[in-house]
């Protein structure tokens, strides 16, 4: 005979209802978790604020010249400028606006804040009654800032230096690792909450990693992906002080997986870094790129004058 207890009959297997006037049979409140399930109190509170990183928005627009026979009125110009420079209560943590080269858009802005309502608020202010009649959206991308999984830990950084020829257990190696350990928290904070440099030029483009047969990024071992991203980062380091970047993730939030924002001290550096980095294996074999926008830093009044919208 088996020691396993016999199965209950169908009637015995049905859960009994709560006794009249008493609590539910589970011992919990109606609608509460069944026995053995972790109570909701142990989960994070529902929130629109990310646990790590900030919301990021890239927005691009055209003026509706087909409907305009004259420059915008002074009142509309004032409303436009106020939308791109919100008051203290509505001002996001980061906000920068640009006039855009080419016919795809006239102007755009990049915005970051922990609260998505503040990110979206700038967009809604531009499309509000009044000025919104004369503006049409051209393109947008929604994402969040992150620390990439390819940023090496202190231990991984030490191992990389040794692979590259450093002698283990030497003061020279220890000094490099210690310096990296001191820099890492600041570097990660800059990835999550970067300051926007007040440089004159910027470019913006979304990207995916390829999934085609023979070049499927997501089937490559992590060690190989990590090696390729280390090469990619090394190429970018050659432009330190000339180009600053923000890589934000749109996975689950928008059509593309990542958004690349590059700020340049000079547009020449933007061309040079994009050209150089596309020879890296991570880009040459696995990169897929979306629409490309190039902009020049400008406040609302400067955008209106550049686009001939102000009398």
UniProtKB/TrEMBL annotation:
InterPro entries for this protein: ChdC/CLD, Dimeric_a/b-barrel
Chain positions covered by the region annotation Disordered: 1-48
Low complexity compositional bias, start-end: 1-15
Alphabetized UniProt keyword annotations: Heme, Iron, Metal-binding, Oxidoreductase
Highest taxon listed in the record's lineage: Bacteria
EC assignment: 1.13.11.49
Signal peptide (UniProt feature, chain positions): none
GO molecular function: chlorite O2-lyase activity; heme binding; metal ion binding
Major enzyme class: oxidoreductase
Name of the protein: Chlorite dismutase
Organism this protein belongs to: Aporhodopirellula rubra
